[in-house]
Amino acid sequence: MILFHIRFAFDVVYNSFTVITVLYMGYFSILFPQFFTTNKFLWFSATWPNYNFGAVRDMLVFIISVDRAISSYFPIAHRVHRDSFSNTWIALFLIICSLFDILILIGICRFNFEFPDKCNDMQCPVGMCYAKYWLKYEEMICLLIAITSGLLAARLFIWNHFYRKGTKITKVHI
C-alpha cells in the first residue's frame, strides 16, 4: 500500500512542477522573448526535471501494476516473497532509472547547451534525440502498464464470474 502513497506523492510533485514550469516559461516567453535564448541553462533547468520525474513516475506505475498482477495470479507466493522486495529496493531501482535517463541524455544523445534560436517548445532544451527516446520510452512503458492491467482485469473477471463460491474474500484470495 505504501507504493500507492509514494505514487500519489510523485503525482502531486510532478503535476505541480509541470504547472509551475509551464507558467514560468509562458510568462518569461511572453514578457521577455529573448530570455531563454540568453539564459539557456534556465530553460534546461525548467524542463529537465519534468522529463525525469515523468519517467520515474511511469516506472513506479509499472512496478505497482506488475505487483498487483503478480499478487492476483500467485497470491500465496506473493504474500510469502513480497517482503524480500522491500520498498527501499524499489526506491533504489527508481533512482537508478533516473540516473539511466541522465546517461541517455549525456552519453548517447551527446547533450550540449546549444539550442536552436527559433525553438520555443520543451523539446529544444534536451534535444531531439532525447525527446524521441523519451516518447518511445513513454509508449513502451504505457503499453506494458496496459498489458499488466489487462492481465489483472482478466484475472478479476475470472474470479468474479467463475469462482464465486462465497461472499467472503479470504486472505488467500487477496
TrEMBL record:
Pfam families in the cross-refs: 7TM_GPCR_Srbc
Transmembrane segments: 12-36, 56-77, 89-113, 140-158
Entry-linked InterPro entries: 7TM_GPCR_serpentine_rcpt_Srbc
Keywords: Membrane, Transmembrane, Transmembrane helix
Top-level taxon of origin: Eukaryota
Protein name as it appears in the record: Uncharacterized protein
Provenance organism: Caenorhabditis japonica
Lineage, top ranks: Eukaryota, Metazoa, Ecdysozoa, Nematoda, Chromadorea
